[in-house]
């Protein structure tokens, strides 16, 4: 696995933020997707806040109630604008299966499958995302320790397996709606996400 290097960094003013976000692009990614890292606020040099977020067009942009992606992203950005940190935005739509396939999976979920069963029924992995790229991006910036904002133990393990020390994990809020309760329950039951769902 080759080492990443910073290709470019650009400061972009963001709404409601006293400082611009610094957007980093990278050379050395094998994937066709253009993953991005954004530094928000005065990130700690020793153990910065980090959020690994996989792209979700329906949730991040259009506020879909079928998942909790959009609220998790907004919450992480707000926290980092206050404290500083690194948002890693991975272009891995639909747990790595792509947007069109995700919409196909939604149709299957409407028929009773959960999010993981639907992916498998379409002959995709239950979760085909690769979080090792996040560790490589952090290393390119010289980050060796972090405090990770996540409920997903796979993200913690991926950073550890790729040489990033996770000093602590910080759970996101629980963004439960009547439309996403089955989705959140599947993440909790099948992938052991640390979500405190009230029965």
TrEMBL record:
Residues engaged in binding GTP: 51-55, 72, 93-95, 115, 150, 155
Substrates-to-products reaction catalysed: GTP + 4 H2O = 2,5-diamino-6-hydroxy-4-(5-phosphoribosylamino)-pyrimidine + formate + 2 phosphate + 3 H(+)
Keyword tags: GTP-binding, Hydrolase, Metal-binding, Nucleotide-binding, Riboflavin biosynthesis, Zinc
Residues that hold Zn(2+) according to the record: 56, 67, 69
GO MF terms held by the record: GTP binding; GTP cyclohydrolase II activity; zinc ion binding
Cofactor(s) needed: Zn(2+)
Active site: 127 (proton acceptor), 129 (nucleophile)
Example of a GO biological process term: riboflavin biosynthetic process
E.C. no: 3.5.4.25
Co-factor remark: Binds 1 zinc ion per subunit.
GO cellular component: cytosol
Pathway the protein takes part in: Cofactor biosynthesis; riboflavin biosynthesis; 5-amino-6-(D-ribitylamino)uracil from GTP: step 1/4
Span of domain GTP cyclohydrolase II: 22-170
UniProt xrefs under InterPro entries: GTP_cyclohydro_II, RibA, RibA-like_sf
Nucleotide-binding keyword on record: yes
Assigned protein family: Belongs to the GTP cyclohydrolase II family.
Described purpose of this protein according to its UniProt entry: Catalyzes the conversion of GTP to 2,5-diamino-6-ribosylamino-4(3H)-pyrimidinone 5'-phosphate (DARP), formate and pyrophosphate.
The protein's name in its UniProt record: GTP cyclohydrolase-2
UniProt organism field: Pseudomonas protegens (strain DSM 19095 / LMG 27888 / CFBP 6595 / CHA0)
Protein's gene: ribA1
């Amino acid at each position: 696995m080759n080492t990443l290097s910073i290709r470019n960094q650009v400061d972009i003013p963001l709404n409601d933020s006293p400082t611009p976000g610094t957007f980093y692009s990278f050379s050395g990614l094998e994937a066709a997707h253009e993953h991005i890292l954004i530094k928000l606020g005065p990130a700690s040099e020793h153990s910065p806040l980090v959020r690994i977020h996989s792209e979700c067009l329906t949730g991040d942009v259009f506020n879909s109630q079928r998942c909790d992606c959009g609220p998790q992203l907004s919450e992480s950005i707000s926290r980092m604008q206050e404290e500083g940190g690194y948002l890693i935005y991975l272009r891995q739509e639909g747990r790595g299966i792509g947007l069109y396939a995700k919409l196909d999976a939604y149709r299957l979920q409407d028929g009773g499958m959960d999010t993981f069963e639907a992916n498998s029924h379409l002959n995709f992995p239950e979760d085909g995302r690769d979080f090792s790229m996040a560790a490589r991006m952090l290393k390119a910036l010289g980050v060796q320790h972090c405090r990770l904002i996540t409920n997903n133990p796979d993200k913690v393990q991926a950073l550890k397996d790729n040489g990033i020390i996770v000093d602590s994990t910080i759970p996101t809020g629980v963004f439960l709606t009547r439309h996403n309760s089955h989705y959140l329950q599947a993440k909790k039951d099948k992938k052991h996400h640390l979500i405190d769902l009230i029965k």
